[in-house]
Amino acid sequence: MTRVRRRKPISFDTTLRNPGRIPQFISVLSEFEGQVIDDKVALELEGEIIRQKIFEPTKATLGTYMKEYNKKFPFVAADQSKEAAAKVEEIYDQWENGAPGSVPLEKIIYLLENTITAHKDRGWKGGWESRIHTQFNFLNELGFVRVVKGEKIVISKNGKLMIHEYSNGYPIEDSYDESFEQSAFLNAFSKYQVNNPYRSNTIEVNFFPLVLNVINYLDEKYQRPGISKQDLPFIITWGNDDYQTLAEYIYQFRNKFSYSTSDELVYEYAMNLLDDSTPNDTIAPATKAFIEQKKRDYKFDKIISETPDEVIRKLRLTMLISLRGAGRFIDINKNELAKIKHVLATYSSNIEFDDDVQKYLEYMGEIDNSLMFVSDAPESQEAKDAKEVTIEKWAKEYDWTFLKEEMVNSVEKRPSSHLILKYVKETARLEFLSAIVIKKALPKLKVVANYKADDQGIPFNTASGGKKNQIGADIDVFEENIHAILEPTISKQRSFQVEHELPSIRNHVLGIANKDVEEGNNFKEWFSLFIASNITRDVGDQVALIKQTNGVEIYPWDIKDFVEYSEGVSTIRDYKKIRDYVKPQSMPVF
């Protein structure tokens, strides 16, 4: 493809802001691998993504019949009958209320042929088909896939590594091994170049190595650990891999203005780095004429806030970046120094691909075994201590209202505005907050969280689940001769809680009890707290059955109730209650 290239700031696609959706999309795509994307296949692919509820359009789009449309593109509904509107609404309701994959693909295709989304991308038909380009273009850039209209669908080796644990858009097992997708993310971002065949940009930047090199240089030369989030606009507007000049620029800027300067001032100086007519090693603001000319193209919010936020989210996926200073700074994760050194030694040099998409795919798609994470890798004592210290620190600093609101936000999949929590995905965030609540409630309790975290104890991902020699509990808590576990879930689906979560928790309790007995540990009491939202009576019935059958005690707690009740407990045993909302159902007594 031939592109007109021009100088632009670095930016990342925000369509798939939730990284957990990336393997989901590729997993669905794998069913179409090798097929040429024509209009029919494009609609079937988008239909399957919607059918599996990887992407969930609103009723205003997917559930509203559109007979004709002639604004951004021409559209005529396939069904012109009087019954079409009612049929669209009926099928939409079936899909909305059904489980993923329960509605036949033919019915979803019917919806796509008779509704629109006002979206049009170059080279793709307007409407639902253009969604394919939106959903997969950044995955093209990362070298996971090759999804281009009129060409065969290709999934690279690294793309297949990403979906190792997935089928039909979802993990194959409840306790799945996230190390495969973590390794795939690290492989992709370590190699990622802004000057790739899918970008119309003139700058030649290996983005992740540039960030790591800048941080490393400032630490080694000036003992400045990490860079401020407010320094990221300078990296975003930088035009090459000369990290030494960039690091010196950031150092001199901070010496001149410190860390209390305004975003407006940072914007003026970052804009000057985009002006090719001025030297990039001189600390100076852009001219008023240049800012006036380019401010619509290089928007203030984009450079100062939106892109830095997205940069941190993306780089956290690599598990090589730590959050410091209450979330205001990013630094290298010292738990992964070997991988960081390998990235810097191997991927700091820029490669020219021109418009050769095949060459780019082959390069990006190869797997570097030195960047692989291992699920059962032993956790260092320093890493365990960092998590414990952070949990205790947060338990002291944050009040009950904040913790309850953030736990609810996690379950409702609402973004957090907190400077650290906003960069932690919902599942890991809920585990983190649950550990903090129990520690706040019982300060003398020993809390061992099993999520993966950076060297500051801030979570990257959830606990791995039961793999190899690991029991798989989310959070272990110890009080005298009691070994209990906390098992939070963001899932609100009755079927998932009853059929997947509770059997898994039962196995975790049995696992820790048997292991404690075998190892001669001084524990004589084992149970679990199941922390969730939208808990139904069916959960209470299943808990009663598990206790009767296996002798395993599980106590379900609604999230709000859990936090509110925690304010008055004096021992972990106080949580051993069956709340009214989960009391087992029984036949009436006459």
Structure report:
This protein has 590 residues and is α+β, with helices and mostly antiparallel strands. The chain contains 21 helices and 16 strands. It has helices at 21-29, 39-51, 84-97, 105-114, 128-141, 157-162, 179-191, 207-222, 232-236, 243-257, 263-274, 288-294, 300-316, 337-346, 357-365, 381-397, 400-411, 426-441, 494-518, 537-550, 559-566, and strands spanning 68-70, 74-76, 145-146, 154-155, 166-167, 170-171, 227-228, 321-324, 329-332, 446-449, 452-453, 459-461, 475-479, 482-488, 525-532, 554-558. The protein has a 5-stranded mixed β-sheet, with helices on both faces. A hairpin with a 4-residue loop joins β8 (321-324) and β9 (329-332). The longest helix is centred in the last third of the chain and has 25 residues, at 494-518. The mean pLDDT is 93.
**What about the largest sheet?**
5 strands, mixed
Broad structural category: alpha+beta
Distance between the termini: 78 Å
Task: Categorize the overall geometry.
Answer: globular
Round the mean pLDDT to the nearest integer and report it.
93
Tell me the helix content: 40-55%
Compute the CA-based radius of gyration: 26 Å
β-strand number: 16
Give the low-confidence spans: none
* Order of the strands making up the biggest sheet: 10-13-14-15-16
So how many helices? 21
Beta-strand content bin? 5-15%
